[in-house]
Amino acid sequence: MLNGLTLRWRLVLAFLAVSVPPVLIASYVAAVLISSSFKHNVERWLGRAADFLVSETMSSEDEADRAASILGASLPAHGGVLTGEVNENSTSLRVYSDLLSTVGYDLVLIYDDKGNTLYRFGSAALDMPLPRSSTRSVFTVTKDGKPGLVVGATRLFERDGQVLHVLVANQLDDSFFATPRAKTAIIIHAYRLQGNSMIPLVREGRGDPLTISDDVLAVLNRGDNYTVVPDRSSGGLATGYGAIRDDSSRLVGIVTFGLTARRPVFEQLIDWRLFTILALIASSLSITVGIVLASRLTGPLQGLKRGLREVASGNYRLQLPERGGPEIAEVASGFNIMTRQLERLRQMEGEMRRREQLAALGEAAAVIAHEIRNPLGIIKTSSQLVAQRSYLAQPDERLLGFVLDEVNRIDRLVTEVLDYVRPNRPTMRAVALDEIVNKAVDFMAPELDKRGIARDIAVTNGLVVEADADQIHQVIINLVLNAMEAMADGGRLTVKAEADEEAAEAVLTIADSGTGMEPDVVHRMFDPFFTTKTKGTGLGLAKVLSVVEHHGGAITCTSALESGTSIVIRLPLNQKKSAND
Predict the structure, then answer these.
(1) Number of helices (H) and strands (E), helices first, in the chain?
(2) pTM for this model (two decimals)
(3) Interatomic CA distance for residues 500 and 504, integer angstroms
(4) What's the pLDDT tens digit per position in 377-399?
(5) Can you give the residue range of the structural domain that contains 482?
(6) Domain boundary at 372, 398, 420, which?
(7) Are 487 and 471 in a shared domain?
(8) Which residues contact 256 (CB under 8 A, 6 or more apart)?
């Protein structure tokens, strides 16, 4: 399936594969770790909170002990005032009970050593014998027919030889834990342990009554102050359980502490719906980024692909922009070098083919020229003899003159063909190119002046080349003649000769301001027998090219209609010899 996809979509899928799964896995691991850490910290906090509530009951015991001590110290010096009907309205201690009531105490008892109640404030009745010693504890009581717990203390005093006991206690009910009352997210429950039953006493918050498991009871009965139980069934928060004990360390009640949030924020991180949304968002971002990056990466590759198609179709002049990063730019640069080399090879192949054709044509022309020259000589000799030995009438003599003229013209043409096909080998020696150029231009100066052609001559002195001076002189003459014919109404001839030190070549430029040539004419101007003139053999520029190539040089031409023509000849410099040598 992937084999049918383009490189762009393969990159998009690869980017999607390497980005989305790691993001999801990392997010899941982070969510699990954070959630676990959060739950652990919450569990510790809930346990500490439950223990704090238990410690608050102990603080209430201490406060009740101090209240009992104050009340005992305030008893009359003689106990007579405590005798009579036990009624909270029938004694002068009412002011003390009212004061204790305002600070939250629900039960005040004064009794003697025999258990006779001398004073009572509050309707709660202890479910146990009245303490006979000073103690601080949690007492089980019954109030209005319902079991409960009170947190208090007893103090022992003597008055007129009579042993009296004062008990001050605060009932463990909804008003007992006043500190977190305003925190609606907090759930506080308190239970009295009665046999195997848990009787609810306090219900702060919105939570439902809890079912305390046997495991929790076992832990608290073992002596632990608190325990924490996670809610493993619904994924909610844990609950802290604190032990309420009496003065004999017997478990008499349990206080619970929890939160109303069923699923905390960090717990919700591992919800599959959240990860589905996260996967969709990550996939969308990955696909978008992947498409952008793939476009930037595959764009230059698409250009290379189109370039290869162009080259396969034969367009070797194509050059691609070198962009798309260092690597792709390097590939594009290599592609451009390859196309330039292919174009050069094609040009060389075409040149070799042209030379082979010209060589074959030259051989055929040489054979034909030889075959023509022999009978042509006989015709010329016979015609001359006839003209010398016979008296001819005027018309016949005129016709015979035409025959001799055409024979001479054909003989010159055959001679030019043979000179082109079998040129004279150049006599190479070190010559000063500036002298040859100046000599040729001076030779043509009268004709140039006659035609009204101005001259710009810029020749660097001391340009020494290895060449045949006569053949180079003839090349310059031929090029100047062509320039003159292109400027029939006058113009400007420019001749420059300078050195190209980097290429170790002498550069000779002959340019005119004439009519110029069309591109197809420029392409064929050095072909043998090709000419645009009404008269001519078409071998002049072909001879120029042959001479330049035999000198190891090169010739190029640039021309445009109505803009003139410029011909550049490059000849190797002779760096070992000078013209004087």
Answers:
(1) 11, 18
(2) 0.44
(3) 6
(4) 777 777 777 767 666 677 777 77
(5) 426-572
(6) 420
(7) yes
(8) 50, 187, 188, 189, 190, 191, 210, 212, 239, 240, 241, 242
